[in-house]
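## Example record

The block below lists the input lines for one assembly entry, exactly as stored, with component labels intact.
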Amino acid sequence: MITFDAVTKRYPDGTVAVDRLGLEARTGEITVLVGPSGCGKTTSLRMINRMIDPSEGRILLDGAPVDTVDPPVLRRGIGYVIQQAGLFPHRKVVDNVATVPYLLGWNRKRARGRAMELLERVGLDPAMGERYPFQLSGGQQQRVGVARALAADPPVLLMDEPFSAVDPVVRTNLQDELIRLQAELNKTIVFVTHDIDEAIKLGDRVAVLRVGGKLAQVADPKTLLTEPADDFVREFLGRDRGIRRLQFVSTGGLRLRTDLTVREGADGRGDEPWLLALTAEGRAAGWLARGRPGELGPAGTFRHGRDSMRAALDAALLSPSGHAVAVDEQDKVVGVATRQALDEALTEAVHG
Amino acid sequence: MGDGPPSLWEWIARNWDTGRAGSIRDLLSDHLLMSLVPIVAGLALALPLGLACIRWRWLYQPTAAVFNVLYALPSLPLFMLLISVTGLSPVTVIIPLIFYAMAVLIPAVVDGIRAVPEHVRQSAVAMGFTPLRRLVQVELPIAAPVVIAGLRVVAVSSISLVSVGALIGQGGLGMLFTRAYQNPFLPPVVVGIGLIVLLALVADGLLVLAQRLLTPWERARRAT
Ligand SMILES: Nc1ncnc2c1ncn2[C@@H]1O[C@H](COP(=O)(O)OP(=O)(O)OP(=O)(O)O)[C@@H](O)[C@H]1O
Ligand SMILES: [Mg+2]
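Predicted structure tokens for the full assembly:
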């Protein structure tokens, strides 16, 4: 656990970057620091590994003040990932990843072996180890940055806007990858971003900072969205806070109808305006409108019980019928959530 | 050197190793020594001074100014001036050449290290490099191409400038020119120029080789 105990950072020019910050980053959790530019996120992060020393207050790592440890030694036990990856241009990728093991005095073979293992772990072809960093794309460099931070298996990981310099698709991949890695590794992660969506997606707990380095609120994402502490937080969360909240509402309770499906190629029957055509494997083929046989409209799907209400609503909006198709892990259709069912669930979410 | 007139080869054969001071071989080794010492000493002094200029920023401008003035001074009067201190010895030639080398190498060291991207430096700090290790394993390697480019200039100019020392009797191969001045005869001049150019080419070639071996990533970059 990382503890900020009334930490203040005043730069020599008088700027107060962090103001009496009290915060705990719990072991095995991702704690996100989020806030507008200049609110002291980077300063806070760098005080943990002593790249910056606080003016007042203390930072504790598992109860021990960090200023009792020699900085280089402290830092070798704390992974650090930054926006531009910060890879060494003069070292091959594999040696970049092996940086901290080398510093810890591992022999070359063991360090490189570990580096190869990590490249694979972050989803890179180990053959890339023999390249130099400039021979990689931005997204790949960022993965190498993560691998390098993990190389000596530090219990703590500090990440300063690690994914903000890559395009949205790659960013989403990297975020998913981090969530997957964290499920395996259970590190104590402090993650800095100015992107509230990223904060909500990744954070077990989210700390919102305001300019001047004051903590505005710290809470789990759901609480943050439902009970913002003040106008600043409300504003920062943005206009679509209501929609985002649905991310935390399960689809498990949605009432599904199973009588709205037909075999693909079969004729529509009855008086339902829309029927869902199924393939032989039981997957969604498309929506059939009454009176227009053979014409299939796209079917938006969501994983029943696993995806959130936000995904279900999104699926409904993608279907011409306005109904969302519930599928299982194998994409087999388990039922249809009608508009009416969605409406009931939304009402429940707002009041319940 | 191709096919010279037979008299040139005869002259070389007769003067290569006479056993007395002033043989071509002696002059060549003098020349090598007088140009090599300034290159090595220049680098050895420019490194700590350059690092000091990075550590204490205010130091750089005055240091650069002093060495630029030294660089601007013509070598001959500088040699004359030094004779009163160091006498008619190779040291009199070597000292100004060290200054010239430093005038080129201090900015090379400073620019080279300042060109290390800030995020690279920061991430080295964050990984847990000690300052010395960061210098040796991160900053100097990344600065190496710029420093070696400076060394190439210094090597060639030192090798060429040593010959000016002939005017005070300490010029290595340059001595061949003053002899020809007293007694107009072509072979010594041709041999002097030829060997100096050859020395310069060899020195430059060695530095290019060193650059390739020390900075393999630069080659990879050029290949793409
Ligand atoms: N070395 C410094 N000297 C003086 N002021 C500084 C220094 N570094 C940062 N600051 C100031 O401290 C405040 C916080 O800076 P910090 O870099 O921690 O912000 P940040 O939240 O990381 O911002 P961003 O999202 O833009 O990265 C800013 O007002 C900044 O100008
Ligand atoms: Mg920042």
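The mean pLDDT of chain A is 92. Chain A touches chain B through 28 residues (CB under 8 Å).
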